[in-house]
Design brief:
It contains seven helices and seven strands. By secondary structure, it is an alpha/beta fold. The two termini are 31 Å apart. The structure holds NADP nicotinamide-adenine-dinucleotide phosphate. The site of NADP nicotinamide-adenine-dinucleotide phosphate has 26 residues, from helix 1.
């Protein structure tokens, strides 16, 4: 897809990885609707996006609420007209092993990390009405190499990978659906100094990545006209 003058909706686009993805799109000439939940940095992110010479606007939604995905999509579409690209990046990442995962925590993670991406994809596909489009789901390598922590998150991301492969078939031939599995590219908020360097020791490439590596993978998938249903690892080989 030629990205110039397209429009994207990026969930969780105000901060951290989502913001880097939104900026990479804007630098490629894509108008960007960013979704945010509680970020205070929205105005600053919008200023950075508009300084790239594209349109940018922010839309608030708690994606844990059942009606939020369809409302968010409708608001973004009303403001921008056609939306050509959906990037599902917003997620929550709570700790929780097999003993202490509660029903409430499970429901919240599955609502934000899996249900919302699906119903956003549904609204996106319906609105495209046969036109070409791309969905990029931000997954995690843990989805395919599940461990013993962050269980609800891991299971929801595994569902996101399954959803990617399923929708790549269901929404073909007009919509390409791909996922990216980032590794260590940004320490979680509050992580100790050297967090990524410690993880890098377990990575075959012996270094950690950066959010920009994920943005490059996203741009590759968006520019491709022949890749769909793919899970692209940006991990330095960590999942191996
Ligand atoms: N960081 C990494 O190294 C890494 C590694 C693997 C995968 N990933 C994946 O990459 C994506 C972004 O990661 P990140 O580290 O940048 O995430 P993050 O810092 O945890 O940010 C989470 C994002 O989700 C939004 N969010 C949280 N609760 C929400 C809710 N109830 N409703 C709607 N939005 C909500 C936040 O919006 P507000 O800030 O506006 O509240 C924020 O934009 C996630 O899908 C994550 O699983 C990241």
């Amino acid at each position: 897809m030629n990205l110039e003058n397209r429009t994207a909706l990026v969930t969780g686009g105000a901060v951290r990885l989502g913001r880097v993805l939104a900026v990479a799109l804007a630098r490629s000439g894509v108008n960007v609707a960013i979704h945010y939940h509680a970020s205070a940095e929205v105005a600053e992110t919008i200023a950075v996006l508009t300084s790239c010479g594209v349109r940018a606007q922010a839309f608030q939604a708690d994606l844990g609420q059942p009606d939020a995905p369809s409302r968010l999509f409708a608001e973004a579409r009303a403001a921008f007209g056609a939306i050509d690209i959906l990037v599902n990046s917003a997620a929550i990442f709570p700790a929780g092993g097999w003993r202490n995962t509660t029903v409430d925590a499970w429901d919240e993670v599955f609502a934000v990390d899996l249900r919302a991406p699906f119903f956003l994809a549904q609204a996106f596909a319906q609105a495209l009405d046969g036109n070409r489009g791309h969905i990029i789901n931000i997954a995690d390598w843990r989805a395919v190499r599940p461990g013993v922590g962050h269980l609800a998150y891991t299971y929801a991301k595994a569902g996101l990978v399954a959803m990617t492969r399923s929708l790549a078939q269901a929404l073909a031939p007009n919509i390409q659906v791909n996922a990216i599995a980032p590794g260590a590219v940004l320490p979680p908020p509050g992580a100790p100094e050297g967090y990524l360097d410690t993880i890098a020791q377990q990575v075959p490439l012996k270094r950690h990545g950066a959010p920009e590596d994920v943005a490059e993978a996203m741009l590759y998938l968006l520019r491709s006209d022949f890749v769909s249903g793919e899970l692209l690892y940006v991990t330095g080989g960590q999942e191996l």
